[in-house]
Specification:
14 helices; two-stranded antiparallel ribbon; PsuG; metal ion binding; 13 strands; alpha/beta; single chain; eleven-stranded mixed sheet
């Protein structure tokens, strides 16, 4: 399989410099709004109200105008993507956003490619590992999720990937078997994932149990408790704790040298100055969970119910907290990538001297 690696990314990897992988689904996907841009040319601004019957039947070319993520219409999503890449650069690493363009996997996107992704939105298929072969074979466009991003990152030798949060075991997962492919990918792909944990909409304790079964090293950053995305606490003890980027780098380095062939999850709590809004969102999640239980909503129906209800209860206020989380994770991810690069170079020099 041919993978197009951006020259800047390829050069950084060749010299052993710090590189951080970023997913593209966070830029492109979300829910349809009630006011839809409607134009034959997707770049022309025009809107009209759409009804419910139209929402599920709209097809190209009109979907090019769709805002790609909840509460983050174009160009807000593009601005966020650029800012996250800038955080990585400012911290000393090279960002490599991953996506499939016209059937070709790309590791590292140009500004024009990022813009295309942001504008196209849901025209890009949400692509997990299971979808890669189909999207590539059909010459399609894919926005990579955690599992697909990890796969391509590992293929080209990027050891660190930053995202907002990972998927997990869904509530009542013991009945529905609704378990994110993110977890199995972590079990078989040696990439370190920096995230804010998992949302409490999921079953966090079972998610941690499943990660243990998969042999995944799970560490919490500067805390003993596994974070729950919008809140610093989940009630679940983290298997281990790390307090610096250097400690994270040492675990990644040891994992690689031992050929464990499994991933690492480094869970980072929400920044303190965003914890207040995070607590409001978490309260809404807990209220929605209680309503779902009272209405006996289970299985595949619970996730769409929860997402819609939390959005109603918070008035969409989760957006800024979500962006802040990703930027915070990007900063730490870049710091870890730099620390890992430095560690590898020191060890290479040491081995070289001992061989003399």
């Amino acid at each position: 399989m041919s993978i197009a690696v951006a020259p800047e990314v390829a050069a950084a990897l060749a010299r052993g410099a710090a590189v951080v992988a970023l997913e593209s689904t966070i830029i492109s996907h979300g829910q349809l709004p009630s006011t839809l841009p409607f134009a034959a040319d997707p770049l022309l601004p025009c809107t009209r109200k759409i009804n419910n019957s139209e929402r599920n039947s709209i097809r190209f070319p009109f979907t090019a105008c769709l805002p790609p993520s909840p509460g983050m219409p174009y160009p807000k999503n593009l601005q966020t993507a650029v800012e996250v890449e800038a955080v990585v650069r400012e911290t000393g690493a090279i960002p490599a956003t991953i996506a499939i363009l016209d059937g070709v996997p790309h590791v590292g996107l140009s500004s024009e490619q990022l813009k295309r992704l942001a504008i196209s939105g849901r025209q890009f298929q949400k692509t997990a590992r299971r979808d890669i072969a189909h999207v590539v074979a059909s010459g399609g466009n894919g926005a990579t999720t955690v599992s697909a991003t990890m796969f391509f990152a590992h293929k080209v030798g990027i050891p660190i990937f930053v995202t907002g949060g990972i998927g997990g075991v869904h509530r009542h997962g013991e009945q529905t078997m609704d378990i994110s492919s993110d977890l199995t990918e972590l079990g078989k792909t040696p990439v370190a994932v920096i995230s804010a944990g998992v949302k409490s909409i999921l079953d966090i304790s079972r998610t941690l149990e499943y990660l243990e079964t998969q042999g995944v090293t799970v560490a919490a950053y500067r805390t003993n408790e596994f974070p729950a995305f919008f809140t610093e606490t989940s009630g679940c003890q983290a298997p281990c704790r790390v307090d610096s980027a250097e400690e994270c780098a040492k675990i990644i380095y040891a994992n690689r040298n031992l050929h464990l062939c499994s991933g690492i999850l480094i869970a980072v709590p929400i920044p303190t100055h965003h914890a207040a809004s995070g607590n409001i969102i978490e309260s809404a999640i807990q209220k929605a969970l209680k309503e779902a239980e009272e209405k006996r909503i289970i299985g595949n129906a619970i996730t769409p119910f929860m997402l819609e209800r939390v959005k109603e209860l918070t008035g969409g206020s989760s957006l800024e907290a979500n962006i802040a989380l990703v930027k915070n994770n990007a900063r730490l991810g870049a710091e870890v990538a730099v620390a890992l690069s430095n560690l590898q170079q020191r060890e290479a020099k040491r081995i070289g001297r001992s061989a003399l």
